[in-house]
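Q: I have 152 residues here and want to know how they pack in 3D. Can you give me a structure?
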Amino acid sequence: MTPEQIRIVQSTWVRVLPIKDIAAQLFYKRLFEMDPSLRPLFRGDLREQGEKLMQIIDAAVNGLSHLERIVTAIRDLGRRHADYGVKDHHYDTVGAALLWTLKEGLGAEFTPKAKEAWATVYGVLAATMQEAAATRTTSTLPTQQPNSRDAA
């Protein structure tokens, strides 16, 4: 993630904020069109979920200049998503739905450079979440006790 990519993401995000409720609706509509199997993972009110999504994106975007300050929260988010049933392959679908939503919301302002910047930033954040989720999954597996025959 370059400083220029961070600047582009932050400047385009400011333009999404006035339409954040519509953007959230567009995002979830597109996400469930792309992968209907994701719908059951969202048990609560989708409007509230959209508000949370926009808050999380806002915090992440605003924290990009000092990633070390938000990495713990991003890792926690990844572990929680693993608990909800999110799998690694879901991150690709979410990323594609996010980029589509930004294109719809920003129109001509979503330039190829903006798309590349958002894809890069999303990739870094998603990888951080996935790494934390993998650690959570691994650390929560029961440890196998050695069989008495295996003991030396």
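Q: Anything worth noting?
A: The chain has six helices and no strands. The chain has one domain: 3-139.
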